[in-house]
Amino acid sequence: MEFPAALFPSYFGAGPPREEGGPAPVAGWGEHGQVLEGGLGRRQAQPAFVPRRGATGERWEAADAAAVPVLLPSAGCWIPSPAPQDILYRSSLCKKLRAGKSGATLDFARQLGHFFVDHPEDAFGSLGQLLHKNFYLGNSKLKRPARNSTIRMTALVEDIERLEARRGCPRQHLASRLRWFSHLCRDWLFEVPLGLLADCLHEELIQQWSNLLFDDSLTGGALAWLPREEGGTPVGRLVHPGGQAMNHLYFQDVVLEELPRARGSPVQFELSGRVRQVAAARVDGEDFVGVRSDYHCGVWRVPGRTGAAPVPLQVIRTDVPASCLTVSPHLPGELSVCTQSGTVYLWSVETGLQQLRDDPQTMFFRDHSPWRWSDFTAHPRVLSCADRTGLQCLDARAPKKCHFDLFKVGEEAGCQQGERVVLPMYLGRAHPSQYLVTTQFSMYVLDERLPLVPVLKWAHMMKAPPLFAHLMPGNPGRSHQVLLGASRTQELLLLQYWACFWGVSSGGSQSACQLVGTPQKLHSIAGCLQHLPTQLPHRQHLLQQRLAAPAAGLAATLQEDGLHKSMLVFQLSEAGDVFCQRLTHKAAQPPAPPSRDEATTAPGSSPLFEAPATLRYRRWLRALSRACREPLRHTWHPSLSQRRLFTRRDLEGPAGPSSLQKQMRQRLHQAMREGGRIQRWEPSAVQPPPLPQTLEPAEGPDPLSARLTAAWGGDWEQWWEERTSFSVAQRQRALRERRRRQKRTRGRRSLSASFTSSLTYQSELSELSDAGPPLVSPGRPPILSQEGSPPAGSPAVRSPPTSPAPDEALLSSQSLRCRGIPKERRKTLRDYLSVWAEGPPEPPEPPGSQASQLCIPSSQSQLSSASQPRRKRPRMGF
Amino acid sequence: SSYEHKLNFRKSKEACLSYIQDALLQKQWKRAAEFLTCYVESLEKDYSREHIGPSEMIWRIGTEILWHHSQSSMKEFNCFMEQMKTLGVKRYLKVCLEHVFHLLCNGQIDEAYQNLSLAESWRFGEQTAIQDKEMKLIEAYRGLLDYCSWSKQKNILLEHSEDGFSDLAVEQEMHGYFRKAAVNLKEIIKIPGVWDVFVKCYVDLLEFYGDHNEARQVLNEYAYNSKFPANPNAHVYLYQFLKRQGESKKSLISALKILHDIVPSHELMIDFNTMLQKSKKRKKRRLGLEVIFAALDYAGWKDNAKAWSCLARQVKQIVTSEKHLDWIKQEWNSRKDWWPAFHFSRYLAKRNWQENKSLSYEKALVAGILLGKDCKYFKYVSHQGCKAQLKRFRMLKKFVNRHNLVYLRISG
User: Fold this and answer.
1) Which of A214, A528, B173, B352 counts the highest number of beta carbons within 10 A?
2) Nearby residues of B131 by Cβ (< 8 Å), 6 or more positions away
3) Tell me, what's the pLDDT at B47?
């Protein structure tokens, strides 16, 4: 590979970037940059100059008016990720955004409020239960004696609402009652100390917000195209994630016809994490596909033959989320992995992991971002590693000693202040020693033989930083195509550049790297909305939301048949949709008559597609509306079978009806037969009926039955006397219980205080809120009084209790314990019962689908055995 | 109110800009031009203190449109550029430079020269650092154009001298160009940067006038000054200069050694290897082996038949002489875990055989010696070669079989 005989002139300086700057909307236009004399030293009449930017390039034109869906939307509705309005402080949002100066204000209070409402048990479980009686929820005024020990909550709520209404007016006099109340109960009311809870929530909010602003976990993109050649018809495989949680990996065969068409059903793997990145490289005629999720990375081998199934090779687990996975284009089964803790590994399927670097600090100056990246270079043993401040190359054989700086955010590359590396990519397929580096402002092409000085620099003017890039190398003597893609704005930009000629100096001109042609914007997924027929408002909104989902990946392929050359660009969205557009190559010519193509590509002027595209769209829309309607139907008829929670024996009532009941029933029957009437509910004999013995279990009857029984017996007054003395005893017991609880919570608090990290507390918290699976307790559990539950075939138990606070009786852990419900089940029961108050339950998680192919790796290596953050339901393999 | 008016004005300005941007990115030059005529209004109330103001935007967008618009002419372009130069003092030099670049790319060398001279004489108060740099570049490019004229005169003169008569006026003119070019070129190459073109021109001038010491100094400075980037071309120019000067092998080797240290994959490494292989000194032959092994580490050299034949020749030589097998052993040690998969896989054997028989011959020889006769690459290629009844490959098979034990000694 020859080095260009002469490079474009440029200044070289060292140090931090001097140029002040920011996003400049048109910075990439109208500049040649530099010129270079082509035929130096030749006997020519006139020297010929070539510009660094601005030479004519190839002409690519969009074949359709918008991108077209490749695959039908998967079943199950997509759950959009949080939008800014979900976590921003609402009232000041518009104002702040208009000013555009200060940062956004997060609505911390609202989120904390959501937590209290959504997880009341976790927020104030025990004390809430204890104090239940002291909170009055009615509208009427409280009477004198009750007022001493009870608060009327409606008044408080009214105050809060009034406060909400005049939010943003600090001068307003606040309700003293509110202040008094919060002052009084701030320290003890909460199950989890409020400060800690707030810390955790705040941390999470900030995380969510920064993800919204810029989510770098998607860097590299989760879409790959594996080209195949099959008897003339161009086919290929699309590797993409899907499913509601984007945790399914699909290998879908696609035939490239007029519109790419899926062939057969995809090979599917279920993984136990959201797929963040899919990287692929072809070595020795086989494709190697690396898949990265937060804590796992896996590698598949896809044999070159068509129809051959992908083979999962290996999986690794990381303690810290991985931020990068790239596949070696040189050696089969080699990958490089970076984690957010600053560790870089060379991962070989045969020999395992080799740590190349372990440094939590950034390389050239301090930057807070834990994002790291690594890729391969022209030398198979030399890897580049990158962070936001630049790139370095390491020799895997002696990573500590042998390294050099490839790119620095600084004066060396003429960077602007605040510029950061967003995506580095090895351009090996076009030129073995060239590298692409994108920042939020510019794109650079670097040659590792001339480190630090970019051989090409251009301001790309994209609204969001380009997280995805795809290279399509041109034939020798042709320009190479690079696609840049952004996530949030779905932007796609096509660039062309010349690198060295492969050894041939055709025309004898220079061969330094130059940007040719003009950058070209391609269709985004959301762009097709204007061409679609108008839908009903709510469906239009749904469609809009779906199509505007951030992009999650980018792939492309060149297709040549005879004279016709075209480019197919695939774009993946976070909702799992894959859209495609075709660009056709026009023979290079001086600016063509613009009238025709400008008219057809101007927005809004071409509502019509070609027929196959229209058909494709119609099918896609139908499938989408079908997929999104289904969960709605779920909400109408919540059907819950209690048999799932309790065995039949649990629900069985006491042994058959009592003798008294039998007697009464007999009398009723007799009276009905005789057509007579019962004058007095008196047994046939004169003596008073025996007191119902069966209704007095060891723990004592429920208040209503006891009262009724007493009234029946005629000594109601005596019962009342007893009752008052009993309630004293009960109150005493409650007090004792409360004291014990307080002791326990105090103990927990002191334990948590010994942890400095709030994260540990968070995990404890989530454990608390996560109920364990219901255990089957030995022995016959005692009866459970039911309220409101449908009599699902079980024998009727007893008359519903109408004690002053039925809910309390039903739900308080104390009463549940009284009823002998085992501790593990109390929470389940409470959740179960609260379902009736809250509405439909979440659909039960489908059992591990046996139909989908499980990934069973041949071996599993682990980065470390130390504990990692809790995951939900680890599945096999991934 | 006026505030609202201002706000609306800004909003519509932004909207207009985004339309223009959209049109540009879709190559709708005509549409962009129409919008730009509206955007010019933004110059009237330029309150912005942004990084790139409206006047710069208009310059950039206008230039881009005029480059591509089907109905634009060079005359219009020049006219537009002249207007743009008056729009902002700070950008005057930059716009001049870009204007010159465009003229140069369109072959209007004389107009470009005039523009450069004009820009050079421009003075406006104190210059900023950036303007200083731009001024230096303007001077350098003028130097380059002077050099081009000099070169043209020189060629005329040479032709004339072939015809047997000399032209004093042309010679005088040529010397004049030399002086002008030399002054300007000398200045820019003192500043750290990549100045390949300027250095080449300056050295050419110096060499023509016999100032070899100055030329050598300039090239040494360009190659070895640590403030300059590690530019491989600087070393290449120095090496070429030394070669032209007929310098000793030793100094040529030392120049290439440094190039090898900074860019082991440079194409001159083949020359370097041949030079070292011919050497009588053991150390140099050893270095030669290192150089060719290192070059073949790189993906760009994978299919380079020349490099493989260099390696094959040297390896064959070592094996037949049975001396210095340890050299191979040492080089092989750090590569034996990845070269087989990188160079000698069965897939590559097939492909190389199909695409380039002589490459596969050289590679098979190296593979047979380094990995033994059972190596996949060697087996496939020698089998195919024998099947095709090529004598060369039969000899190869014999040679490898005879020296099969070498592989045990190398890998052991």
Assistant:
1) B352
2) B90, B93
3) 61
Task: Report d(CA B215, CA B240) in Å as an integer.
Answer: 12
Shortest distance, CA B404 to any CA of chain A (angstroms): 27
If you average pLDDT over every residue of chain A, what do you get?
A: 75
What are the boundaries of each domain within chain A? 60-82+467-501+510-587+609-628, 106-210
Cα A603 to chain center, whole Å?
33
Q: Which residues pair with A298 in a beta bridge?
A: A291, A315
Return the number of CB contacts < 8 Å for A and B: 208
- Taking the CA of residue B267 and the nearest CA in chain A, the distance in Å comes to 6
The Cα B103–Cα B111 span in angstroms is 7
Arithmetic mean of pLDDT, A602-622? 69
Q: From CA A354, how far away is CA A347, in angstroms rounded?
A: 6
Q: Write out chain B residues lying below 8 Å of A41, CB-based.
A: 151, 200, 204
Condensed to tens digits (0 to 9), the pLDDT of residues B140-171 reads 999 999 999 999 888 888 888 777 667 788 88
- Chosen from B55, B57, B104, B148 to mutate, greatest number of chain A CBs within 10 A: B104
Does residue A332 carry a pLDDT above 80? yes
Q: Residue A379: which of B104, B230, B298 has the nearest Cβ?
A: B298
pLDDT, tens digit, 9 for 90 and up, residues A109-163: 888 888 888 888 888 888 878 887 788 877 777 777 777 788 888 878 887 777 7
Residues in chain A with CB shorter than 8 Å from the CB of B107 are: 46, 48
**Listed residue (A223, A225, A224, A228) closest to A307, CA to CA:** A228
Distance to chain A for B322, nearest Cα, Å:
29
Do B369 and B339 touch, CB atoms closer than 8 A?
A: no
Q: Hey, are the CB atoms on A26 and B61 less than 8 Å from each other?
A: yes
The vertex-B293 CA angle with A405 and B331, nearest 5°, equals 100
Contacts (Cβ under 8 Å, ≥6 apart) of A490: A524, A525, A526, A548, A550, A551, A571, A573
Query: Mean per-residue pLDDT for B339-353?
Result: 94
Mean pLDDT of A206-225: 90
Q: Which residues contact B125 (CB under 8 A, 6 or more apart)?
A: none
pLDDT tens-place string over residues A835-849: 555 444 444 444 333
Q: Which two tokens stand for residue A506?
A: 């055709």
- Between vectors from CA B228 to CA B185 and to CA B207, what angle results, nearest 5°? 40
One-letter amino acid for residue A535 of the chain: Q
User: What crossing angle do the helices spanning B269-278 and B249-262 adopt, rounded to 10°?
Assistant: 140
What residues contact residue A839 under an 8 Å CB cut-off, 6+ apart? A635, A638
What are the residues whose beta carbons fall under 8 Å from the beta carbon of B279, sequence distance 6 or more? Answer: B249, B285, B288
**Amino acid at the residue A178:** L
Which chain A residue has the Cα nearest residue B351?
A: A284
The rounded radius of gyration (Å) of the Cα atoms in chain B is 31
Mean pLDDT of A442-471: 93
Lowest mean pLDDT among A334-348, A617-631, B351-365: A617-631
Q: Which helix (H) or strand (E) holds B345?
A: none
Q: Which residues of A397-412 are buried (b: 16+ CB within 10 A; e: fewer)?
A: eebeeebeebbbbbbb
Mean pLDDT over residues A850-858, rounded? 36
Q: How far apart are CA A319 and CA B123, in angstroms?
A: 62
**CA dihedral of residues A428, A430, A436, A442 (deg, nearest 10):** 180
Hey, of A42, A49, A452, which one would you mutate to test binding to chain B, going by the most B CBs within 10 A of its CB? A49
Q: Is the pLDDT of residue A803 over 50?
A: no
Range with the poorest average pLDDT among A607-611, B6-10, B47-51, B401-405: A607-611
- A797 pLDDT tier (thresholds 50, 70, 90): very low
Q: What pLDDT, on the 0 to 100 scale, is given for residue A604?
A: 39
